[in-house]
Amino acid sequence: MAPCITALVVTHNRKALLSQNLSTISAQLYKPNRILILDNASTDGTREMLGEEGWLDHPGVELLALPENTGGAGGFAAGLQHAIGSGAEWVWMMDDDAEPHPDALEELMRVATDPGRIYGSVAVSGDQTAWPLHTIEGQQFSNTASLPDAFQVVSLPFLGFLVSAGTVARIGYPDEGYFIAGDDHEYCLRARANGIPIVACGKSRIEHPASHHYRFGLGPLRPTCFYIQPWKRYYDVRNRIASAMRHDGTLSALGTTVPATAVRWLATMLNESDRRAQSKAYFAGVWDGLLGRSGRRHEQWGI
After folding, report:
1. CB within 8 A of 85, min separation 6: which ones?
2. What dihedral do alpha carbons 162, 165, 168, 173 form, nearest 10°?
3. Which of 5, 31, 48, 163 has its CA 20 to 30 A from that of 245?
4. What is the pLDDT of residue 153?
5. Are residues 156 and 273 in the same domain?
6. What is the pLDDT of residue 214?
7. Spatial contact of 183 and 76, defined as CB atoms under 8 Å apart
8. Residue 298 is assigned to a structural domain of this protein
9. Distance CA 262, CA 137 (A)
10. Taking the model in full, what pTM does it have?
11. Are 64 and 149 in a shared domain?
């Protein structure tokens, strides 16, 4: 018997992207049993769009609207809890700007044979991966032509992320305190710490805008740097440190993650604009990360 699969989409104020996303999910060759839309308190007419386009009349579509914006982390945590509580055996998670290829779920389910593993589609932008994929052996994939059918990776984003109810029972839900950025990476760290492999499926693909990144620095301190807005930078910095402290310990965070953050700050100062706001975001992120502060806090810092 085929497993019960819920496709979970988290959205906030991007109704046009959501509409396209829902169309691509409903066009899957392998149909999910249900589509769960988690609306993070949108104010752009998302609910009206869903009604006008008939999504809310579809028996296989459910809307779960939150009273406040809890960020991607809070949305995935609430959506995953609701999906599993409603009988889902597997949950296929993604953001509203994802466009799964028609055979994305079909190819994923060819590989997903063990509920004790986490599986994931590959985010692509044309013939390139949306961001580099790193295997547990240290190999990196950036071109879609070389992707194996299935390979273990260090982590996967919540973008075609397939997790079983049994795995969630073992390791819990995403940490809603992250708000945005790094919640998926922390979840993968938690899974691997519990002996749960993370498997990417090379033939299951989701179109997604490519990240804008570059490498900077020398030797071991040559981290990947991303072009991102200051308010998002705060969460990226804070949550990297939070994950390092949680999974590697304070000494490792101070000896590795904080120095890497300093390198990223220097790269930002040399390569990006709005340096004053970016510097403030770095300082605030390091401060709150080391102090263990979580939740939505960029506005309190005036970022």
Report:
1. none
2. 80
3. 163
4. 97
5. no
6. 74
7. yes
8. no
9. 27
10. 0.94
11. yes
Residue 2's pLDDT is 85
- Confirm if 100 and 25 have CB atoms less than 8 A apart: yes
Report the alpha-carbon distance of residue 84 to residue 99 in Å, rounded: 23
pLDDT at 219: 67
Residue ending a domain, choose from 180, 207, 234: 207
Q: What is the pLDDT of residue 300?
A: 96
Query: Is 194 in the same domain as 232?
Result: no
The pairing of beta strand 34-39 with beta strand 61-65: parallel
Residue 125's DSSP bridge partners are 128
User: CA–CA separation, 106 vs 160, rounded Å?
Assistant: 12
Residues of the chain with pLDDT under 70: 218-220
> Token match 């691997």: residue?
192
State in Å, rounded, how far the first CA of the chain is from the last one: 51
Q: How far is 116 from 10, CA to CA, in rounded Å?
A: 24
194 φ/ψ angles, rounded to the nearest 5 degrees: -100, 15
DSSP structure class, residue 254? I
Domain boundary among 170, 189, 207: 207
Structural domain of residue 55, as residue ranges? 5-207
Tokens read off for 302: 């005036």
What is the total residue count of the chain? 303
Q: Is residue 297 part of a domain?
A: no
Round to whole Å and give the CA distance between 295 and 81: 19
Between CA 147 and CA 124 the distance in angstroms is: 11
Give the pLDDT of residue 102. Answer: 98
Dihedrals φ, ψ of 21, to 5°?
A: -60, -45
Give the pLDDT confidence score for residue 212 in this predicted structure: 79
